[in-house]
């Protein structure tokens, strides 16, 4: 796992651009579909990538449950070869982001 850290700049740019390779099992769903277990492989304060999410519908908001956190909302930005890139509806607070990274090991 790589972690570039936050460089302390006040413009928020570092928080938006920090992207960490992680492996976290979480649960995702769209609309009223059942919850599915998914592997989160890439995380930044602004979004994430899921390794595989069959039948992803970019027009439908996505809900994600990351262990230890409240339910989060996101939108699908892209789908490639089964992988799905998403943007959080509200970016993660830097402390929450760093907590997830530490917990992921």
TrEMBL record:
Q: What Pfam families does this protein map onto?
A: PilZ (PF07238)
Q: Tell me a Gene Ontology molecular-function term this record carries.
A: cyclic-di-GMP binding
Q: Which domain of life is it from?
A: Bacteria
InterPro entries (alphabetical): PilZ_domain
Residue ranges annotated for the PilZ domain, each copy included: 16-102
Which Gene3D superfamilies does the entry mention? predicted glycosyltransferase like domains (2.40.10.220)
Name by which UniProt lists this protein: Pilus protein PilZ
Organism of this sequence: Novosphingobium barchaimii LL02
């Amino acid at each position: 796992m790589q972690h570039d850290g936050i460089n302390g700049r006040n413009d928020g740019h570092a928080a938006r651009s920090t992207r960490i390779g992680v492996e976290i099992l979480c649960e995702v769903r769209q609309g009223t579909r059942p919850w599915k277990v998914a592997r989160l492989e890439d995380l930044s304060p602004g979004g994430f990538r899921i390794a595989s999410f069959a039948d992803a519908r970019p027009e439908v908001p996505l809900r994600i449950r990351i262990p230890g956190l409240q339910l989060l909302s996101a939108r699908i930005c892209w789908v490639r070869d089964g992988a799905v890139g998403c943007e959080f509806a509200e970016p993660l607070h830097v402390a929450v982001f760093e907590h997830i990274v530490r917990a992921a090991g």
